[in-house]
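Ticket #4471: structure output looks truncated?

Reporter: J.K.
Steps to reproduce: submitted the chain below (218 residues) through the standard prediction queue, then opened the result file.
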Amino acid sequence: MTKQEGIVLGVAGRLFREKGFAATTVRELATAAGMLPGSLHYRFPTKESLLVELMERGMMQAIERVRAAIEVEDTPLNKMRSALREHLSILVEGDDAIYVNLYEFRSVTGAARARILRLRDAYEALWDGMLHAAVGAGLIRAGLDLRMVRFLLLGAVNWSAQWYEENQNYTPGEVADAFFSISAFGFCNDGVGGLLAQSAERPEVQLTDVFDDGDRSG
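Returned output as attached by the reporter:
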């Protein structure tokens, strides 16, 4: 990547984040990068090609950093905890390439969309591998839908990008550890957790048996 291309990508990331991909014009991109629209078109044929380049850069960064974080850990759960910490750190560092991955994926179509999906699949495969290893080691109960577990973990951490900047009472590591602890151990005590599991497996167990406030008189 040339220096000029790096400048263009930096400008594009900032404008896509500030204005949104759809509202940003090629002329605005060229002006902000200090070049003519024709010169911009020569390097990046379409506005979408800029977005895809940014997304690929963000996804590759996430894959490389999370892979490096988990390689030094020895157990599946330690790997998951470190992966959550690294994922959240990436989110809150403010890289525009990460932001557009979160919020502009709907703007990518056709073959470009397929390219980004392949990278997303590679990233999600890291998480699926950790989850399956944890099940195999007897650390996660069998029968769980591991895809839903991944959705829960990454969904919770991704939403942190919305609020973390204004609520910095916690470090990124503390937030990630809290999410991991709640996901791994739940937030109900053991007795309630057992009844909830029964209600999911046996329709005859009513949730009123779980959440009984001691007053059924109405």
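Triage note (M.O.): checked the attachment and the full token line is present. Residues 29 and 35 are 9 Å apart (CA to CA).
Status: closed, working as intended.
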